[in-house]
Amino acid sequence: MALSKRELFQKRRLRVRNKLRSVNNGKPRLSVHRSSKNISVQLIDDVAGTTLASASSLEKDLGVVGKNNVEAAAKVGAAIAERAKKAGIEEAYFDRGGFLFHGKVKALADAAREGGLKL
């Protein structure tokens, strides 16, 4: 029996996350979620189970509401890097979830790196 697209996505997502857990060393995880209309990112402390900082294309102050493109993802990446600095975080592991590392996900990661976050 063939697996559905959603089941394959879940397998990829869990495979990536489990690999990150094995090399985590207490660093927070930068988790990305991309939908058909928006992109969001969270800095998560897996030990405490809390979100340390977050950013989303739904936030009006970023000026990208309603835009789902590479430029919007880059603005979200820059915003999370700035918020991470305010929270005192300089390093994190990049969790792409089940998404491929190209396009919007890559633009978000590159913008976060340019903003001073080590991924």
Verbal overview:
The chain is of the alpha+beta class and 119 residues long. It has one domain: Nucleotidyltransferase, domain 5, CATH 3.30.420. Helix content is 39%, strand content 19%. It has helices at residues 5-22, 70-86, 104-114, and strands spanning 29-34, 39-45, 50-56, 93-95. The protein has a four-stranded mixed sheet with strand order 3-2-1-4. The longest helix is centred in the N-terminal third of the chain and has 18 residues, at 5-22. The radius of gyration is 14 Å and the shape is globular. The protein starts with a helix and ends in a 5-residue tail after the last helix. The mean pLDDT is 92.
Structural class: alpha+beta
**CA-atom Rg in angstroms:** 14 Å
Order of helices and strands: HEEEHEH
Strand order of the largest sheet: 3-2-1-4
Look at the structure and give the mean pLDDT.
92
Strand content: 15-25%
CATH architecture: 2-Layer Sandwich
Number of domains: 1
Cα(first) to Cα(last) distance is: 38 Å
CATH class equals Alpha Beta
Helical stretch tally: 3
Unreliable residue stretches:
none
